[in-house]
Amino acid sequence: MLRRSVWRTALAVLAAVAVLFMAPLTGAEAAHAHPYPPPSPPSLSVNPFFVVAGDPVRFTAKGFSPNQQVVAVLRDRPNTPLGTFVANAQGKVSGSVTIPVSTRLGFHELQLKGQNPNLTVSALLFVFPRVFPLAGETSGQEEPQPAQADADIEPRHVGGAAAVVALCGGAWLGTRRLRNGNR
Q1: Structural domains of the chain ordered from first start
Q2: Interval 45-82: pLDDT, tens
Q3: Which of 40, 71, 125, 147 has its CA 20 to 30 A from that of 65?
Q4: Cβ within 8 Å of residue 56, ≥6 positions away
């Protein structure tokens, strides 16, 4: 008989706990549903990724408000505005900007900035300096003569080359000694 009352007590406690946990849930409001599928996050893609200074870059961005004015900026020192564009009815902006000829070698960030609401998307570019001037453009410098070309070699370049030769020679000597068993 003792066994039967323990069973009933356990069942009563379990029922009480279930009621305590379920009571708040029955009075809760329904969850607000979000649209499905969820909107895609703002993004920016550029083409090409590797660009020579002075060449155009095409871009496509999404996530802006319809008809929002968007400013393209090349993040550099100083930041360079590249143009103003307007988003279409779906919030998509596409266009082309020209990377300034004076842009230095390296990674640079192309940003598209919209206001009201504030939204900024960015993408990285790798910019190579322009080696040869554009058509109709002069560099303002004379072509170096053969004697001048040799004078442009800096001492740090010679020292760097000597260090590389010394490292390679040391590595070769070390591997040769290990092969022959000389330590």
Answers
A1: 43-128 (2.60.40.1930)
A2: 888 889 998 999 999 999 888 889 999 999 877 888 89
A3: 125
A4: 96, 97, 98, 99
